[in-house]
From TrEMBL:
Active site residues according to the UniProt entry: E218, C252
Keywords: NAD, Oxidoreductase
Residue ranges occupied by any Aldehyde dehydrogenase domain in the UniProt entry: 11-443
Protein name: Aldehyde dehydrogenase
GO terms under cellular component: cytoplasm
Record bears the keyword Oxidoreductase: yes
Length: 469
């Protein structure tokens, strides 16, 4: 049930107050923007321990250190990056004035859009609220945030700590589930940034279209990892294990499935198995191995494995032990599903868990065709040192981002735009692209002195002939 803050009337009132406040100060100066970022930084750092503990409790188990590294560090780095680069981002951009218009000046002013809505998922419940929020504040906006209901302790703590440092007409947090999310997405924001599933993304865009609200959609999908022939190296497999098993695979840019040359299949399986055992010596009960967020997702993932078993795929579960206490907090052992057909469930839907299907190939062209026959992924990973093949993959596939000989790290680079394409999303944030997505690029022409176009008025006679001469 929606709580009080999540009722449509209350949300509309908050939006109204934020817009009124925005109109009073529609272009906050750089010092004010930096002060807001500094307040956000202090809020996160002073509640660092509580935030990491809240995520741990919401998941059932997620290592304090994993949250600290993968979320808190990322948020602080993003805030520092925005603060350092704000002056450059805000600088008006000079544009070319062709000969006939000389005497005038053209520029783009990056104007705050107004009130931004931010909707976040549960998988990185701190950073996927805080980084869009920091970006929106840097761009001079007011912000309404709707975190996920699946991490209730974290979301409610975020509400409390943001209320400590921001007046409600600068930042407001709305708590609630899908019903509240639906009402939130119908509000007449000046921009809406949604992070979540592709299926809900459709609904968000539909709702936003009612008020012509521009959207950034950060969605999911099946991100492939290609391992070049003969490239089953220690470094490659360690990086794939890191990308697949951080947060137990509940990462939007986790490698979803692997494409391995048929001659390398057994070597890949053996190395993956050895790397997992080395990295998580206590199997799914290891301290750094996260639980699955909810019973529904736990059952969904087990059903994917069951479906693969029924279809006679080869299934390798790594580090499984007899029933342990950890099993009761929804852990799923790292699982490889080998040599599968593409119509199997685990190859149809986004996995979002510690299951890695492996498909084999004979030539790189097959891999490119297979990827292009599917919806465009959020990330694509290529492990190999063959420049020609790497160039072919880069040029002939389309994905939000690409990691070469690396997984996940591209998201941590503050200066790279992060976003999807096609079914994996619309628009991007991080980098200057984030600042610009939450700013209006206002083109301004200033007529400074007399020139031919400044005399333009009827009767037009043969002015067109002169202009085209
Ligand atoms: P979700 O789409 O179920 O929920 C996201 C947000 O939308 C939540 O705040 C939720 O309350 C709200 N919501 C749910 N149903 C709604 C509805 N019918 N109408 C309006 N709002 C609704 O996603 P999730 O399960 O929280 O997160 C997992 C998904 O998010 C995965 O698909 C993952 O790939 C994707 N994801 C993408 C990124 C990215 O940056 N591209 C990052 C993390 C997660």
């Amino acid at each position: 049930m929606p709580n009080d803050a999540g009722s449509a009337t209350v949300m509309e009132a908050i939006l109204h107050d934020q817009r009124t406040a925005f109109l009073r100060d529609a272009s906050p100066r750089i010092a004010e923007r930096k002060a807001r970022l500094a307040r956000l930084r202090v809020a996160v750092l002073s509640h660092r321990t509580a935030l990491c503990k809240a995520v741990d409790a919401d998941f059932g188990r997620r290592s304090y250190y994993e949250t600290d590294l993968m979320e808190i560090v990322g948020v602080i780095q993003a805030i520092d990056y925005l603060t350092r680069n704000l002056h450059r981002f805000m600088r008006p951009e000079k544009r070319h004035v062709s000969l006939v218009y000389q005497g005038g000046r053209a520029q783009i002013i990056w104007q705050p859009k107004g009130v931004i809505g931010v909707m976040a998922p549960w998988n990185y419940p701190i950073s996927l609220v805080m980084i869009p929020l920091a970006t929106a504040l840097a761009a001079g906006n007011r912000v309404m945030v709707k975190p996920s209901e699946l991490t209730p302790r974290t979301s409610s703590l975020i509400q409390t700590i943001l209320a400590e440092v921001f007046a409600k007409d600068v930042v407001a947090v709305i708590l609630g589930g899908a019903e509240v999310g639906a009402a939130f997405s119908r509000l007449a924001f000046d921009h809406l940034l949604f992070t979540g599933s592709t299926s809900v993304g459709h609904k968000i865009m539909q709702a936003a279209s009612e008020n012509l609200v521009p959207v950034t959609l950060e969605l999911g999908g099946k991100s492939p990892v290609i391992v070049a022939r003969g490239h089953v190296t220690e470094r490659a497999v360690s990086s794939i294990v890191f990308g697949k098993l951080s947060n137990a695979g509940q990462t939007c840019v986790a490698p979803d499935y692997a494409l391995v040359h048929e001659d390398d299949l057994e070597a890949f399986i053996a190395r993956f198995d050895a790397t997992v055992i080395r990295t998580y010596p206590d199997g799914p009960t290891s301290d750094d191995y996260a639980s699955i967020i909810s019973d529904r997702h736990y059952e969904r993932l087990n059903a994917l494995i069951e479906d693969a078993r029924e279809r006679r795929a080869r299934i390798i579960r790594i580090g499984v032990r007899p029933e342990t206490a950890a099993d009761r907090i929804r852990t799923i052992a790292p699982t490889l599903v080998v040599a599968i057909r593409s119509d199997i469930a685990v190859m149809r839907e986004e996995i979002f868990g510690p299951i890695l299907p492996i498909m084999t190939y004979r030539a790189i062209g097959e891999v490119i065709d297979l990827i292009n026959a599917r919806p465009r992924p959020l990330a694509l990973y290529y492990f190999g040192d063959d420049d020609a093949d790497r160039r072919k993959v880069l040029a002939r596939t389309t994905s939000g981002n690409v990691g070469i000989n690396s997984t996940l790290i591209h998201v941590a680079l503050d200066d790279l735009p992060f976003g999807g394409v096609g079914a994996s999303g619309i628009g991007a944030y991080h980098g200057i692209e984030g600042f610009r997505s939450m700013s209006h690029a206002k083109g301004v022409f200033i007529q400074r002195r007399w020139n031919l176009p400044s005399l333009l008025r009827a009767p037009f006679g043969r002015l067109a002939d002169i202009a085209l001469a």
